[in-house]
Amino acid sequence: MTLIREAPAAPASTRPASAGTAIVIALHFILWAITMIGGWLYWDDFILQGQAARLGLSTDLLLNNHDGHVMPFTYAVVWFLQDLSGLNYALVATSMAVGQTIFVVSAVLATRSLLGRGMPSLVALAVLLLSPIMLPGFTWWSAALTLVPLMSCMLLATVAQVHYLRTGSLGALITTYALAVVALGFFEKSVLIPFWLFGVTVLVSRHSGLWSSVRDSLKGHWRMWLGWLALLVVYLVAFAQVAQGRTHLPTGPGQVLSLIGRAVFRTIAPGLVGGPVTWTPVDFSASFANPPWWLILFGGLVVTAVVIAGVRRPGISRKAWVVAGAYLAIDLATFAVGRLGPAGDPGVIQAGRYVATAMIGISIAIAATAASYRDELSAPRWRWPLTGFVATIGLLALLSCLAYAAIWSDNPAKKWVGNARADLAGASDGAPLLDQDVPDFILLPVTHPYNQASWFLAPLAQQPGFATSTTALQLLDNRGRLIPATVDGAAALPPPQGCFVVPAGSSVTVPLEHALIAWAHTVRIDYAADRAGFVNVRIGSGTPVAAAVQAGRHQVFVRAEGGETSITVDATDSSLCISGAEVGRVLPADLPYGGGTDITEQLQQLKNGASG
């Protein structure tokens, strides 16, 4: 049972379609590989690996609410890969290649189960695999971890659903449920699978009319839909216990209309004709589709013409476009309630990955429309116009992929992590590091605490580790190099008689030269101790932090939170003489400016020189 009913074809007649399928698959992997070779890890990739390394394979990790996403199977894959080799792009890329292979095989099986082995399935496959708008979801690891399993299970469930409708096989029906459960473990958006399978049931219905097909699908398979309803209710109840606060309703009709316009005319339509050609960089290495006006117009006209042509023909093509449109509407609705609202931006939809699953239905509808006009399009007068049209789309698609790859390859994290990996491995037997923020060009402060080096670099096996105190202050600079550091901030007022004496079992308050805001600061303490022991250091009224001290004259550095105009040192089991202290930020030790020199004149000279 396929959508395109035709006489059985001789093996030789399917050879062009089979050859075309092989070419489409090869082109897909070539374009994907070109982008992957220049790419690297980005944003959520670091957050997910850091969480996996710090939390381990536990319920805290598997049921973690990551920006409203609940994805235990995704976290399991992340944990497994980072446990093998943390922040290893080659390993990540290999796993993504496996995922792409599964996805492509699923796409071939699904298009053939619906459209047969002829040219219609080739058309659908080409649209699905070669549209540049799919690249962001396939080349960014964090996106691919959720999107590829969802789409693969969705496509395989399509195959099982068609088989069930054709044969009534209970095993095929159970397979659809099982695939949905697997997909839900990777991505909550998999709740859309039953809606898609209802569309598939409508498409393969024996009735040619839309509403008769809908009635037949509901009445003839009501037990199956009750099963899907029960599955969704159970999942959504469980999901609500973990992903609280995920819903963000749109601010009004204007935001919804903006979302629809951007999704259809700036993302999908240009993508179907080889666009977007141009991309707008966002943050570092990521980008959004930003097609030029002429491509928006071209794509809009082509898609409008194809939709009208398909809907005008009664039967499969009309049903296919209604199914594709209905699924897109549901898809955009889930986006609207999850990502719009006062702080939401409809333009995010132009990242492409948010409409990727809708491309399945759209590709089927395009193929069904082409099949319904097969006789007309086979006429000699259409040969060269169609050849030129396809060649134009192919050229635009190539330009789009290369433009995206160029932006995606501009990733400063690769060099920074490479330098940090090498220096931390060399310092793995040294003193622990105090925590610090990684550079903003890798992760912005909004991701706190995952922009902390202790989280970000947790997947690296060879490193000295992070602690709240250390005897040798170092930091990772903007190059990723581990360098000596110093504290710059509020120094302690001169101590009476040369030092602040702290007998064992007592405490002393050391006044600072000026007040500090309540924040995470680093404290440097210069001391002499009669024996090894421990002290507790507190900034103002903040939480005390324990630190080890050594016998003799040394320094200790402590990272603590607090403010006000003093620090308090409690000596637990050794007596100390504190000769100096300073509280503030950590800076490279070799900077010419350490906070004690007025460099206003030098800065003004630099400014004048730059303007001159």
Strand coverage percent: 15-25%
Average pLDDT, to the nearest integer? 90
Supply Rg: 30 Å
Structural class: alpha+beta
Helical run tally: 21
Low-confidence stretches: 6-10, 594-600
The CA-CA distance between the termini, in Å, is 77 Å
Characterize the largest beta sheet: strand count, sense, and whether it forms a barrel: 9 strands, antiparallel
Relative helix content = 40-55%
Report the principal-axis shape.
elongated
What is the count of β-strands?
Answer: 13
Oligomer: single chain
Comma- or semicolon-separated keywords:
612 residues, alpha+beta, 9-stranded antiparallel β-sheet, two-stranded antiparallel ribbon, 21 helices
Task: Describe what this molecule looks like in 3D.
Helix 8 (141-167) packs parallel to helix 10 (193-203). Strands 5, 6, 7, 8, 9, 10, 11, 12 and 13 form a 9-stranded antiparallel beta sheet that branches. A two-stranded antiparallel ribbon has the order 1-2. It contains 21 helices and 13 strands. It has 612 residues and is α+β, with helices and mostly antiparallel strands. The chain is 53% helix and 16% strand.
Concise synopsis of the structure shown:
The protein is of the alpha+beta class and 612 residues long. It has helices spanning 15-38, 44-55, 59-62, 72-84, 89-115, 119-130, 135-139, 141-167, 170-186, 193-203, 210-220, 222-242, 253-272, 293-312, 316-339, 358-372, 374-377, 383-408, 413-426, 453-456, 600-611; strands spanning 279-282, 286-289, 433-434, 466-467, 469-470, 474-476, 482-491, 500-502, 507-529, 533-539, 545-549, 552-571, 576-588. The protein has 21 helices and 13 strands.
